[in-house]
Structure to design on (1463 residues):
């Protein structure tokens, strides 16, 4: 056997003995010996049939040889005896050849194994050297992590003292009892010492009274020493005996006095964890468990502790235990409830416990910026009218410091709180006086800072205002039959008239603002109640002043206020009863009011170390003066944020604390401050920044063995070997996994046999030399630098039978990554056994855990060895399997994956792309969960990237980048990353054409820097016609340079080209004063700023140049135009509310001599009033616009400085726009529709301020648009629009709508022409129609009669006229209203019914007068008067106005025409 040291991680796995080098060689030689023995005894087995194999390993071979021997024997019986010797010789030669072959094979295998051992020994020596280097690096002195705890137990109970220490090399621990070394060998039944993984335990069996002592443990290594001690007190049970005072033990958890004597096992199923809550909330801590056996009458006892103080049911806490659950409920949380909570299940089987911290944050302040509430309000030294109230200060992280406190009291049974102090008290202690004897009080405290007053603290426990000495002055004597006699000491002292002076007057408390005096009552005291008076005197004054002159004090305690700061005082006390006042007591020593307690100094160095993914362990050095400390407050801040948050909200007493609730992967710093009655100390120095990650626990440099592999799968079998695959451990233990060891055993065998002696570096291995048709099971262990981890669970039984099926074998190594809310990515390895043809693809199946049917995720086989499964349900759990496909069909399914919950983890991050400052393209990934042992594995198409020529990987901390060295189109594809030693953190990124082009463009910009431009080279035409060329960059340094190039010629700054640069704003400009036709061409500006360059060009050729030139000339003309009177705004129109069109213009630069005129179509327009040019506006009004107003309107300005014209063509679209505007304005004034009846029909009218037939209007009947026609006529006038309904009928009833369109708006007016409205209108129409018919057909004189007729006497007068009537009218002639009778002088006729005449023959002066003709039929008629004037011959003819016809007078149809009567 080799003497070389075996590496520690192989010691338990190798098996050596004195005969053989290893088990494999021993198996070979045993097999050879068995075969030889079987061949020698073959004849015996054949003849007797009684042979039995004594070695199971070669039983099968022996039976085979025996069977062959029997066949040969039978054959020999039929052959001749002469051939027997030849057969024996041949058989012997054959056996000898086989034996030589076996020996040769055994030697070859032994030689190979020895070579492997030599290589392995070299690896072990190298690893041992590496380990030695690492051990030297991590060496350190012992450090106590968990110290010993003191215990108080009863006799005959066992005690276990344990502590945790770390250090390297591993410390040696020795135990001492009262400084004497404990040797378990001296009393093995009493002591038992254990030590494993840094946890050391001293077991004291059946402790007795002599075991009460101080126990110490000392840990030592070459770098130093550390120790811890505790006290063990063994109590003898006596009735009503109290346990030892807890004050002697700094930290202990009391054991319960009642012991459960039933052996019950308690196993926690679900424990409560670290909890965060807020003041005022309700909360329940629960813990479920399994109790064995479950006995209703005998159950373990559940005990809850807060910081090792046993809790009981109270107003604030409620305890529950039953139905396999223990719960602690808080009815109204307060910071008093913060602390470490422990549930202890006590039974004879032992004590099971679980602990977690409860953090209680401050409730929101009633006033912004006010401090949190004080806590732990307690009452001390209560007496008849006096009590001292103490509390703990709140932490002020972001609030202003506390400047004092108010103490409130409330009598029990009442609800009104009374403030005890007028001014805030600055220390966390206050003596309350003035209590009423015999009553109970509760107290609360409020903190004050510059912002306001905090919420009140939780009320204290009630305290009674009683003298505790009263109980001592009574004695109870028990007599027969249960009777009692109570004797008071007052009765024994007799009558005391005037009491004696108090004794032992001293200051029990001294502060800056008050002194509490205490004294003993006089002895004897007497039966009468005593009161006290206190007097003070400033040292050196010689005078005494009574302090409580108004109210006598009943308690032997009194707080004296109003003392001068820095002045010493002496005091004395007088006692009094109803008989008188005693002499003064002895004078106290001089007492000077001052604070005996000062602010604590800041804690020392703060060290933060990793603990879990969300917590950090913080330790610090205690302050130099730690007396009277309440505890410490710990605060944390994210690095760089400068925002501090409190961790604990109640002071802790120890200098080590676990800060919970931190964000994984974030960097934090910590600080600590101490608290006492005076307040809070200064903050300590900040700790070094620490990243929140899980610490790696282990015995070597915080490393541990890897976890166990899993998922062993049979991948191929040829009848003599099996290829197995498995999954790597979830956690590597903080060190890379070096390889694996595999063990095997046949089915139903108990012993495991190693398969490999050298490490297997992959998760697949072929096991050789197996027996065909035998069943095997396997297990695998992983190894790292620390050692070999736990083995996997044994695999299922695999049969060693050759695979011959044409379909492929199972895929293996299923891995699930990139778990999101509805999808995940599944990876696998190709089957080892492909079948009879190559694999063409894979099917992916999945199902929910509780479902029975599998779902195939892909309709067609995927050729890749990864697949993204989508459309999953968030929050559901799935399992997966993969089936390979070849030409023969679908092969075996892979092993079913482990159940996976489809739910995206909070804070999940994805791969992102970018380009660094040097232009290198990269993919990056951040993983806050990464630990020191984590490995970032980048892959393309989910194959690990190993091409160092194409890629470069840089990993630092929890950040990793994949750089593309020479990116090209071959880099397109899917990139993935997975992080080991995490809970499956992974992500992928698809590099497509669009993303690749974006990154390449960005990379080019960085590698070839350009000056970023806000604006390319552009131009603008200035007011005077100058052309300004300009460009603006993001920024320009003072050293930047530039140049302008026009048509390939650089131009310099000159009068013609004025060049300027505003570098702070990045603007470069060139102004050309005269822009002419010679300036056509290309304009370029080139800029250089350091290495960065850029240029921009502007081409002004052809139409582009003409546009600039025209604009320049226009601006130049405009500039010249504005030198004289000019139009600042040219003619424009608008419509007034009165529907007039107003032409307006604005003028500028005018003077008194400036002339303004209006023109239309070249002709001047007369205006009533000349415009006032000083107002700067001129107007021309066009009322009632119509087509006649179309034309070209001009306005002119002129004086000696120049002339300007503005014109507006009021036609075409302009006219239409004006009409549209008029429509809108007129529509606003539209009246409701009105009915007007005519002889033709019914007319609907709407009155407007303006109406024009060109306005866009519409009439609708029952929502149908009406077109103008014979039946419905549409028209209007200047101020009215109408609809004429000709010959209305019943069909014309209904709603009529008139709508006028005014651009953006329209205006509607509606009338309901139905019912009574229609009937009335229709009746009026009929009446008018009839009247019109009568008017048309009545008798009337159409023409021919003049108004006056002059005639000379003697002449013949003929009055002729045309008459009309239907039927023909009657005609009657009158003279002076009397009917004319026909005679020789008068004659009249009616020809053809229409020509009527009156002839007067030989007129005389008597014929002068009024002649009338009456024309009438049944429809009516009319009368026409003619005045006849007869003059004599020789007289002047009267003047008569020519052309005047006689005016008819109508005659109604009912009026009869009668000749007037003679007078």
């Amino acid at each position: 056997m080799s003497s070389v040291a075996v590496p520690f991680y192989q010691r338990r796995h190798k098996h050596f003995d004195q005969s053989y080098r290893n088990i494999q060689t021993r198996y070979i030689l045993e097999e050879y010996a068995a075969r030889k023995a079987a061949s020698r005894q073959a004849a015996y087995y054949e003849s007797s049939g009684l042979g039995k194999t004594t070695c199971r390993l070669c039983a099968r071979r022996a039976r085979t040889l025996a069977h062959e021997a029997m066949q040969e024997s039978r054959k020999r019986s039929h052959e001749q005896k002469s051939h027997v010797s030849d057969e024996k010789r041949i058989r012997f030669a054959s056996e000898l050849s086989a034996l030589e072959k076996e020996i040769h094979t055994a030697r070859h295998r032994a030689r190979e194994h020895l070579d492997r051992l030599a290589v392995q020994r070299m690896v072990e020596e190298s690893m041992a050297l590496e380990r030695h280097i690492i051990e030297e690096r991590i060496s350190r002195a012992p450090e106590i992590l968990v110290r010993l705890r003191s215990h108080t137990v009863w006799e005959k109970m066992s005690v276990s003292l344990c502590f945790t220490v770390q250090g390297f090399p591993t410390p040696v621990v020795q135990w001492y009892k009262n400084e004497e070394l404990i040797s378990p060998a001296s009393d093995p039944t009493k002591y038992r010492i254990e030590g494993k993984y840094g946890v050391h335990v001293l077991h004291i069996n059946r402790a007795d009274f002599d075991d009460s002592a101080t126990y110490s443990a000392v840990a030592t290594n070459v770098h130093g020493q550390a120790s811890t001690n505790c006290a063990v007190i063994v109590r003898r049970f006596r009735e009503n005996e109290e346990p030892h005072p807890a004050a002697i033990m700094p930290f202990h958890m009391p054991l319960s006095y009642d012991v459960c004597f039933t052996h019950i096992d308690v196993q926690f199923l679900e424990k409560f964890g670290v909890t965060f809550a807020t003041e005022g909330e309700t909360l329940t801590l629960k813990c479920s468990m399994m109790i064995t056996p479950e006995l209703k009458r005998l159950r373990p006892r559940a005990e809850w502790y807060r910081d090792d103080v046993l809790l009981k049911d109270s107003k604030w806490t409620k305890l529950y235990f039953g139905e396999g659950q223990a719960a602690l409920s808080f009815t109204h949380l307060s910071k008093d409830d913060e602390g470490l909570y422990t549930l202890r299940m006590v039974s004879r089987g032992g004590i099971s416990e679980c602990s977690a911290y409860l953090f209680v944050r401050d409730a929101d302040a009633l006033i912004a910026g006010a401090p949190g509430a004080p806590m732990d309000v307690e009452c001390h030294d209560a007496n008849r009218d006096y009590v001292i109230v103490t509390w703990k200060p709140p932490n002020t992280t972001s609030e202003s410091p506390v400047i004092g406190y108010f103490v409130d009291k409330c009598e029990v049974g009442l609800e009104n709180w009374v403030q005890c102090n007028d001014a805030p008290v600055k220390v966390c202690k206050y003596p309350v006086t003035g209590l009423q004897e015999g009553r109970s009080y509760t107290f609360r405290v409020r903190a004050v800072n510059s912002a306001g007053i905090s919420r009140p603290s939780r009320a204290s426990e009630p305290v009674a205002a009683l003298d505790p000495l009263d109980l001592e002055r009574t004695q109870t004597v028990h007599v027969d039959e249960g009777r009692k006699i109570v004797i008071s000491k007052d009765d024994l002292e007799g009558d005391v008239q005037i009491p004696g002076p108090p004794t032992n007057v001293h200051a029990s408390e001294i502060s800056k603002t008050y002194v509490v005096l205490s004294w003993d009552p006089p002895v004897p005291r007497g039966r009468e109640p005593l009161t006290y008076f206190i007097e003070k005197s400033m040292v050196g004054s010689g005078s005494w002043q009574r302090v409580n002159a108004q109210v006598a004090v009943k308690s032997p305690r009194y707080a004296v206020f109003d003392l001068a700061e820095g002045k010493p005082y002496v005091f004395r006390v007088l006692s009094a009863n109803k008989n008188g006042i005693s002499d003064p007591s002895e004078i106290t020593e001089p007492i000077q009011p001052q604070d005996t307690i000062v602010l604590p100094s800041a804690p020392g160095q703060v060290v933060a170390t990793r603990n879990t993914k969300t917590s950090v362990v913080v330790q610090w050095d205690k302050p130099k003066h730690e007396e009277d400390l309440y505890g410490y407050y710990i605060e944390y801040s994210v690095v760089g944020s400068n925002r501090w948050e409190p961790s604990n909200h109640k002071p802790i007493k120890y200098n080590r604390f676990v800060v919970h609730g931190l964000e994984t992967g974030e960097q934090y710093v910590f600080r600590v401050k101490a608290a006492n009655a005076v307040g809070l100390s200064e903050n300590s120095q900040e700790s070094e920044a620490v990243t929140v990650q899980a610490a790696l626990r282990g015995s070597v440099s915080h490393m541990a063995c890897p976890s166990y592999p899993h998922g062993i799968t049979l991948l191929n079998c040829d009848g003599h070997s099996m290829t197995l695959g498995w999954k790597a451990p979830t956690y590597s233990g903080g060190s890379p996994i070096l390889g694996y060891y595999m063990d095997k055993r046949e089915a139903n065998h108990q012993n495991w046999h190693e398969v490999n002696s050298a490490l297997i570096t992959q998760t697949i291995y072929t096991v050789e030399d197996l027996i065909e048709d035998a069943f095997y099971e396997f297990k695998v262990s992983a190894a790292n630098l620390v050692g070999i981890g736990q083995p996997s669970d044994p695999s299922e039984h695999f049969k060693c039978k050759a695979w011959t099926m044409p379909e492929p074998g199972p895929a293996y190594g299923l891995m699930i990554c990139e778990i999101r809310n509805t999808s995940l990515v599944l990876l696998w390895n190709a089957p080892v056994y492909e079948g009879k043809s190559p694999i063409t693809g894979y099917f992916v199946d999945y199902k929910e855990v509780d479902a029975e049917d599998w779902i195939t995720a892909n309709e067609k086989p995927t050729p890749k060895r990864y697949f993204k499964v989508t459309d999953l349900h968030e929050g559901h759990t799935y399992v997966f399997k993969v089936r390979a496909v070849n030409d023969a069909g679908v092969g075996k399914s892979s092993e079913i994956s482990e159940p996976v919950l489809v739910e995206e983890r909070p804070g999940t991050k994805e791969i992102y792309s970018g380009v660094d400052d040097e232009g290198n393209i990269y993919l990056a990934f951040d993983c806050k969960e990464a630990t020191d042992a984590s490995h970032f594995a980048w892959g393309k198409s989910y194959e690990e990237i190993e091409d160092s020529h194409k890629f470069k990987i840089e990993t630092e901390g929890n950040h990793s980048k994949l750089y593309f060295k020479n990116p090209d189109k071959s880099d397109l594809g899917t990139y993935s990353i997975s992080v080991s030693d995490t809970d499956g953190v992974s992500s992928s990124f698809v590099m497509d054409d669009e993303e690749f082009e974006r990154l390449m463009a960005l990379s080019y910009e960085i590698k070839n820097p350009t000056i970023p431009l806000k604006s390319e080279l552009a131009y603008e035409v200035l007011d005077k016609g100058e052309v300004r060329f300009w460009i603006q960059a993001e920024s320009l340094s003072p050293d930047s340079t530039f140049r302008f190039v026009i048509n390939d010629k650089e131009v310099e700054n000159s009068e013609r080209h004025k060049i300027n640069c505003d570098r702070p704003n990045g603007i470069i400009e060139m102004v050309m004063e005269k822009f002419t036709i010679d300036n056509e061409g290309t304009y370029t500006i080139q800029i250089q700023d350091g290495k960065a360059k850029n240029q921009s060009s502007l081409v002004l050729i052809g139409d582009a140049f003409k546009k600039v030139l025209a604009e320049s000339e226009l601006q130049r003309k405009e500039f010249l135009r504005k030198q004289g009177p000019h139009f600042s705004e040219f003619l424009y129109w608008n419509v007034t509310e009165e529907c007039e069109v107003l032409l307006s213009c604005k003028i500028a630069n005018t003077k008194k001599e400036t002339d303004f005129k209006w023109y239309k179509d070249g002709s001047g327009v007369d205006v009533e009033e000349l415009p006032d040019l000083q107002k700067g506006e001129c107007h021309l009004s066009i009322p009632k616009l119509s087509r006649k107003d179309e034309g070209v309107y001009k306005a002119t300005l002129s004086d000696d400085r120049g002339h300007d014209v503005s014109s507006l063509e009021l036609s075409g679209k302009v006219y239409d726009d004006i009409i549209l505007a008029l429509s809108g304005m007129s529509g606003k004034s539209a009246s409701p529709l009105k009915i007007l009846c005519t002889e033709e029909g019914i007319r609907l009218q709407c009155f407007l301020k303006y109406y024009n037939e060109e306005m866009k209007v519409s009439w609708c009947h029952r929502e149908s648009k009406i077109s103008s026609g014979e039946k419905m006529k549409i028209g209007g006038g200047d101020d009215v629009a109408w609809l004429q309904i000709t010959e209305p009928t019943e069909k014309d009833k209904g709603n009529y709508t008139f709508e006028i369109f005014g651009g953006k708006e329209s205006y509607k007016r509606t009338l309901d022409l139905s019912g009574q409205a229609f009937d009335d209108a229709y009746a009026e129409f009929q009446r008018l129609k009839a009247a019109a018919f009568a008017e048309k057909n009545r008798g009337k004189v159409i023409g021919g009669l003049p108004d006056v007729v002059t005639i000379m006497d003697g002449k013949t007068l003929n009055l002729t006229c045309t008459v009309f009537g239907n039927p023909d009218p009657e005609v009657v002639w009158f003279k002076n209203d009397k009917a004319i009778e026909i005679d020789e002088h008068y004659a009249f006729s009616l020809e053809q019914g229409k020509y009527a005449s009156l002839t007067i023959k030989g007129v005389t002066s008597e014929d002068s007068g009024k002649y009338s003709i009456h024309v009438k039929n049944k429809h009516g008629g009319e009368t026409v008067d003619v005045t006849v004037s007869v003059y004599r011959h020789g007289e002047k003819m009267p003047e008569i106005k020519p052309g005047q016809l006689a005016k008819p007078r109508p005659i109604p149809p009912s009026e009869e025409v009668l000749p007037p009567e003679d007078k």
